[in-house]
Structure formats: C-alpha cells, structure tokens
Write a structure and sequence with these properties.
Layout (H helix, E strand, L loop, with lengths): L10 H7 L1 H14 L6 H15 L7 E5 L2 H15 L7 E7 L4 H9 L3 E5 L10 H14 L3 E6 L11 H11 L2 E5 L7 E2 L2 E2 L6 E5 L13 E5 L2 H10 L4 E3 L2 E2 L10 H31 L14 E2 L5 E4 L3 H10 L23 E2 L5 H6 L3 E4 L7 H19 L1
Parallel strand pairs: 2-3, 2-4, 3-14, 4-5, 5-8
Antiparallel strand pairs: 1-9, 6-7, 6-12, 8-9, 10-11, 13-15
Bound molecules: pyridoxal-5'-phosphate.
The site of pyridoxal-5'-phosphate has 15 residues, from helix 4 and helix 5.
C-alpha cells in the first residue's frame, strides 16, 4: 500500500465512505414515485441557497439544473429574456480564455458573443484592466454588439477581484454572473462567491468541491424575476404545465442527484477545511522548491478546488512525478482562444492575452481532494523536493 499511486483526484473515496447515507436516500427516492424535480430537488435548492447566503438577510434562491454548463446558458437566456437587446444587435459576454471550455461554450449556446480577456498573473483569474480595455473596445468599435454580462470565473477555488469587477460592471450597466463551478464556499470580503453578482452558477461534476454522483448544476440568485425565468427555461419554457411561455430547453436536476448532493452538502464545510489544510501543508513543505506556489490575497478565502503550481519545465516535472507514483493534471492544456473550435473566431481583448499565453504552458495541478492523507501529501512534497535537487546538479 505504501507505494500505491497517488491519484490527482479521487471522488470515489468519499462516495464509498458515504454509501450508507446514499443507500438510504436512494431507497427514499425510489419509494417517492417522483423521479424528475419535486421535493428532493426543492429541499436541496433551499439548503444550498441557505448555505451560500449564510447569515445575510437578503437570502436568495437556488435553481437546480442538469449541469454547470447549462447553469451558465440558462442564466444568460433568462437575462436576455428580461432585458432583450435591440433588434439587429448581438449580446456580448466578457469572460476569460483561461477557464474550462464550458464557460465559453455556454455563452455561445445562449446566442451570445464571447469576448475573452486576460488574467492576473498571481491569481490566474480575470484581470480587471484587460476587462476594461475589452469593454471599451466593444463599446467604441463594435456597434453590432451590446455588452450584457461579465462572467468572472473563480478558477481553482480562488475568488476573482470582485470589488474592481463589480464597480466596473455597475459603472457600465453590465451585469455580473459568477462562474463558481470551482469555488463552492470560497469567500470574498466575508461573502461567499455566487452571492455577489446578479447570479452565481455552479457545477456539481463529481470532482468539484461539491459533487454529485453524475452530472448536476445550479444557479443562485437574489433576483426573483430572474429565478422565475430560469425555472421556466429549464423545463421547455413552461410557466404552466404543457404551455411554453418562452422557448426553453430541458435541463432539470433529478431527485436522486439532489438527494446525494444534500448529503454531500452536509460534508462540504469539513471537505473545504480539509482542502485548505492540505494546501497549507503543501505550502510549507514546498517553500524551498523553485516553482511558483499558489497564493491567496488577504480577505480572500480560497477553497483549493485545485492546488496549481507553475514551473518552466512543467512537462518534465509531471513525468518525473508520475514515475514516482504521483498523479498530476493540467488545467488547462490550451486556453479557449487557441483551441481548434474557437481559434481565430472569438473576439479577444485589444492588447491580446499575453499573461494567459505565458502562464498556460507552465501550470501543473498536484493531487488535491479532501481524503488525501497526510502521508501522501508528504510523498508528493518529497518527490518535488527530489526534482528540485536534481535540477541543481
Ligand atoms: C466544471 C466547470 C464548468 C462546467 O460544468 P459542467 O457541470 O461540467 O457542465 C463550467 N465552468 C468551470 C470553470 C468549470 O470548472
């Protein structure tokens, strides 16, 4: 066992440990006779909304959907339903190129034009200055486009610079939709991400901080009209059964996943605390290693969906670690604007994406999941120390 391969992620460990809880939920759902939406979904929606809002009195609501990509698409469609762009114009949505491709795919699925901006070199999240120049470029040079939303992505569990982004959005009348797929529980100035913008979208892909045993997603919002629009959109545009008020899609959360998620939600604070303590352990063990470690600014609560370091010899380092039984992953091997589906086609910020392009080939994600044991954290660290030593000789 001692030298077993350390996987980069391992959701099955937690799922096995919680199996008795899931078995009970499984039997309850089968016995309920309700297999689409219904009370299990409503219960999870309420619990997740309350967990996000915490003690704040302006608690919003949560709309369960089929996955995190749909969560973004449905939020944008709902926004366009409430605030349509003038005929002949296309809605523009600003986000980063350094994200899961899902963010950009959802923007296009909603009929919007993605405009990709650069990142900050320390946090790897949206650069407020690149955002500003991209918005200025669109408003002055693209009369065919109307900026409708900014989607900051709280990548790796690290919140974006929300003060600057929100102030900018407010000044220009552009709404903020937070992509929180990697940041369940991350906080900015004491408030959980997802509660800061007009909406926060979540994915419950199994390896996320809060994961289902399959696909699921959700949107949090304090805007009741937006929530109502999203509830219609996720089910054929129905406000009343069998009557589509607006053209919708089918993106329902199923009660089985809702029941499993409600169980995992009870473990989420402990899981996030475990991720933070693993990160702290990596931070101290790796302090002498000549790689760039992740950072978190004061006032930010990082939830370490991923622990990502930076090395000029990334691929050689990954191979070295693999040989020593340490699994790693790359998030992401190519920025969205350089992937074949998007290259040469999407709009990018006027000064280009120099930081994204410099950083992407150097990023490497170390093993990170709540059940990663201390001995394995140390094995990962010792392998990195060995690598560092070998670079010297
Ligand atoms: C996982 C993820 C998504 C998409 O979620 P799915 O549930 O896989 O559709 C969107 N954005 C980011 C940043 C993600 O990490």
């Amino acid at each position: 066992m001692k030298n077993a391969f350390i996987p980069f992620a391992n959701p099955g460990v937690a799922f096995q440990a919680r199996k008795p809880e899931y078995d009970e939920a499984f039997s309850r759902v089968i016995g309920s006779g309700q297999y689409i939406l219904g009370s299990e979904v409503e219960t999870f929606e309420r619990h997740f909304a309350d967990w996000l809002a915490g003690t704040s009195r302006d608690a919003g609501e949560c709309v369960g959907v089929a996955n995190g990509t749909d969560a973004i698409e449905i939020t944008l469609r709902a926004l366009l339903g409430l605030f349509p762009v003038p005929p002949g114009k296309l809605p523009a949505v600003f986000t980063v190129s350094h994200t899961a491709v899902a963010t950009v795919a959802a923007i296009e699925r909603a009929g919007c034009v993605p405009v990709l901006v650069d990142i900050d070199e320390a946090s790897y999240t949206m650069s407020p200055s690149s955002l500003e120049s991209a918005v200025n470029m669109v408003t002055t040079q693209r009369p065919d486009l109307v900026p409708i939303a900014i989607i900051p992505v709280h990548l790796y569990g690290h919140p974006c610079e929300m003060d600057a982004i929100m102030a900018f959005g407010e000044r220009h009348g552009i709404r903020i939709i937070e992509d929180c797929a990697q940041a369940h529980g991350a906080a900015y100035s004491g408030r959980k991400v997802g509660t800061l913008g007009i909406a926060g979208t979540f994915s419950f892909y199994p390896t996320k901080n809060l994961g289902a045993i399959g696909d699921a997603g959700a949107v949090y919002t304090k805007d009741a009209a937006l929530a109502a629009e999203m509830r219609a959109l996720r089910q054929y545009g129905w406000r009343q059964r069998y009557v589509s008020a607006v053209p919708g899609i089918n993106s329902r959360m199923d009660p089985l996943q809702a029941a499993f998620l409600d169980i995992n939600l009870r473990h989420l604070n402990a899981d996030n605390a475990a991720r933070r303590s693993i990160a702290a352990r990596y931070d101290s063990l790796l302090s002498s290693v000549r790689v760039t470690l992740p950072t978190a600014k004061p006032g930010i609560e990082h939830v370490y969906h991923l622990y990502v370091l930076r090395s000029k010899r990334r691929d050689a380092l990954a191979a070295f670690l693999h040989e020593r039984g340490v699994g790693t992953a790359v998030h992401y091997p190519q920025a969205v604007h350089s992937q074949p589906a998007y290259a040469g086609r999407v709009i990018i910020a006027p000064s280009g994406l120099p930081i994204t392009e410099r950083v992407v080939p150097e990023l490497l994600s170390l093993p990170m999941f709540p059940q990663l044991i201390q001995a394995d954290v140390e094995r990962v660290a010792y392998a990195l120390l060995a690598w560092d030593k070998e670079q010297l000789s």
